[in-house]
UniProtKB/TrEMBL annotation:
Domain LysM: 330-374
Name of the protein in its database record: Peptidoglycan hydrolase
Pfam (any one): Glucosaminidase
Cross-referenced Gene3D superfamilies: 1.10.530.10, LysM domain
GO BP terms: defense response to bacterium; killing of cells of another organism
GO MF term list: amidase activity
Protein's organism: uncultured Aureispira sp
Superkingdom of the organism of origin: Bacteria
Keywords noted in UniProt: Antimicrobial, Bacteriolytic enzyme, Hydrolase
Matches recorded under InterPro entries: Glycosyl_Hydrolase_73, LysM, LysM_dom_sf, MGlyc_endo_b_GlcNAc-like_dom
Keyword Hydrolase: yes
PANTHER family: PEPTIDOGLYCAN HYDROLASE FLGJ
Length: 379
């Protein structure tokens, strides 16, 4: 637009060299300058979080450097470590922003008028003039200040509701921060959630400072064992409690499983347990089903049966339909030794569909503690 107006002015013989003598030319130049400033101001004022690009390699270095303080603050205040890390990554540009480098301010915390008496640093953000930001002696001090900022009783009307959420509910925290006006970016919550899920930061919410020193195998035992709801028959008198190898994992862990000869439902599909000494032919005969169909329904090509495993008597579904409305039911947290087939069989989902929702695991097994989506995610 600016170029078009300048070109038009030139074509009409408004010579810039004679602008002092030409009042009309002066007015046009003032209008053009005003238009330019109006277009340039948003670029100067846009916060770092509006330019959403995160280098994963740099982000992982950042996580290793600051995850201890994030988890320690979660222990102390209840603010999810995943949220704190994601905000630090987003607000500071993985620690590379001017504010992070010069002021050790990783969360964009402003001076707040007369509240702040320490050193200050001025940078452009989302205002038409430079804004005043707090300077900290270290990044860790900034992490602590971020907690105190959210915990400030004077700001309870804005952020107080967040502390009623579970510390594992990172989506609720992300949306709550945006709703409360923590940042002006309209995509702030989506950006936080994207960072948390892409980098697996939600795993930090299940840890403590002491657990951060554990080995990878020791950490794998900490993550919660998630499983679908199983609709058992209340009048069942055939149940027996048996200690067996975990049927939904390749790890030789022993678990107590209540086996029943009755049919039950998983994900709205009729299913039965594999009993000790069972093979597919016995199961088909017991429940009057065709063995070929059971073989196909349960995707058993190249796979054997395990005692305690579910055998579905009908086709598995395309996704997991939880009876509750909890958003956490849309994901499964992987335990040690679990394959994508184990998870598909645990929730009554077709393996092909599960891999479609989680394409990264088509060629490699998921690691303990990562999230596996049980249905298509909304964008």
């Amino acid at each position: 637009m600016l170029w078009c107006l300048l070109r038009a002015a030139k074509e009409r013989s408004f010579l810039l060299l004679n602008y002092k003598k030409d009042k009309n030319m002066q007015r046009i130049l003032l209008i053009l300058i005003g238009l330019f400033l109006l277009q340039a101001t948003p670029l100067l004022a846009s916060p770092w979080s509006d330019y959403f690009f995160i280098d994963d390699i740099k982000a992982r270095f950042y996580i290793e450097k600051y995850k201890h303080i994030a988890v320690a603050e979660m222990d102390r205040t209840g603010i999810p470590a995943s949220i704190k890390m994601a905000q630090g990554i987003l607000e500071s540009g993985v620690g590379e922003s001017e504010l992070a480098n010069v002021a050790n301010n990783h969360f964009g915390i402003k001076c707040g008028g007369e509240v702040w008496t320490g050193e200050s640093h001025y940078v452009w953000d989302d205002e038409v003039v430079k804004s005043c930001f707090r300077v900290y002696e270290s990044a860790e001090e900034s992490y602590i200040a971020h907690s105190e900022f959210l915990l400030n009783p004077k700001k309870a009307f804005r952020y107080g509701v967040l502390f009623e959420l579970e510390k594992h509910d990172y989506k609720g925290w992300a949306k709550g921060l945006q709703k409360s006006g923590y940042a002006t970016s309209k995509t702030y919550s989506k950006n936080l959630i994207s960072i948390i899920e892409r980098l697996g930061l939600y795993k930090l919410d299940y840890l403590t400072v002491k657990q951060l020193a554990l080995t990878e195998n020791e950490l794998a035992n900490i993550f919660p064992k998630t499983a679908p709801e199983v609709d058992l028959n209340a009048a069942d008198t055939t149940t027996t409690t048996t200690r067996i190898q975990d049927p939904f994992s390749s790890v030789l862990d022993s678990v107590d499983v209540i086996l029943t000869l009755y049919q039950f439902q998983v994900n709205g599909i009729d299913a039965v347990y594999v009993q000790p000494g069972d093979d597919l032919d016995k199961i088909a005969d017991r429940y009057r089903k065709k063995m070929k169909k059971l073989y196909a329904y349960n995707e058993l090509k190249g796979r054997g049966l395990k005692v305690g495993q579910y055998i579905f008597l009908d086709k598995k579904r395309s996704c997991y339909e939880h009876s509750s409305t909890q958003k956490s039911s849309n994901v499964h947290i992987v335990n040690r030794g679990q394959t994508m087939y184990d998870i598909a069989q645990l929730y009554g989902i077709k393996l092909k569909k599960l891999l479609k929702y989680n394409p990264v695991y088509r060629q490699q097994p998921p690691s303990p503690g990562v999230q596996v989506f049980l249905k298509k995610q909304k964008r």
